[in-house]
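Reminder to self: tokens first, then the designed residues, so the page reads top to bottom the way the pipeline ran.
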């Protein structure tokens, strides 16, 4: 029975199932940040990302078949695994950057990397929505609309696998010497001490309380 033929009760049940799945998806996203980041200390960052791209490819490529066969539990498990790797990728990337570039400027480098992450966050949904709308306009049944979309996403993960494969250790000539690092840290420390000495320090008064209430 298609969604258009659902009764009101069936639509309410479908909404409940959808909400529960999104909640489960979010829990795996959170758990993945702890699990994969911790595992990367053992596997290594690069191997962890190889794992992401390999398992992600298998999950996306298998999704149409799982949906066609009606294997709802395995289908949901595949996407929960994908959600865990999304969270894990986000939690692991700072350590990966530190391994490649060192820790001195990893904050600034991470900020630059997030521009690429944000671009992917825009381009990915655009691709999915365009393909969805185009196939819907062609009259493709709703339960078959996403099949080629999953294959495209699997292909993007192959591109990610290749990109991760191309990453090499940074040439030693780009690293700062111990003396340069010490001089830079001393300079930054003096700036912090100057800021602290000139800053106005106050208590948590009514004005501060109202300001935080406004933020809340």
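Designed residues (216 positions):
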């Amino acid at each position: 029975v298609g969604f258009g033929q659902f009764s009101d009760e069936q639509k309410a049940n479908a909404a409940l199932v959808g909400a529960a799945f999104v909640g489960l998806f979010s829990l795996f996203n959170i758990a993945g940040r702890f699990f994969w980041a911790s595992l990367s200390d053992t596997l290594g960052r690069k191997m962890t990302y190889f794992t992401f791209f390999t398992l992600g490819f298998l999950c996306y490529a298998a999704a149409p078949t799982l949906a066609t066969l009606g294997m709802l539990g395995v289908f949901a498990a595949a996407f929960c695994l994908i959600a865990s790797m999304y969270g894990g990728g986000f939690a692991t990337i700072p350590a990966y950057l530190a391994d490649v570039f060192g820790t001195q400027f990893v904050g600034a480098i991470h900020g630059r990397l997030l521009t690429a992450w944000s671009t992917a966050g825009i381009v990915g949904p655009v691709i999915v929505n365009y393909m969805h709308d185009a196939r819907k306009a062609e009259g493709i049944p709703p339960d078959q609309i996403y099949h080629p979309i999953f294959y495209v996403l699997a292909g993007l993960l192959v591109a990610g696998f290749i990109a991760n494969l191309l990453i090499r250790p940074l040439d030693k000539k780009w690293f700062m010497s111990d003396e340069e690092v010490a001089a830079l840290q001393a300079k930054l420390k003096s700036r912090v001490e100057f800021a602290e000495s000139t800053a106005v320090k106050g208590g948590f008064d009514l004005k501060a309380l109202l300001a935080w209430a406004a933020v809340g």
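The CA atoms of residues 164 and 200 lie 48 Å apart.
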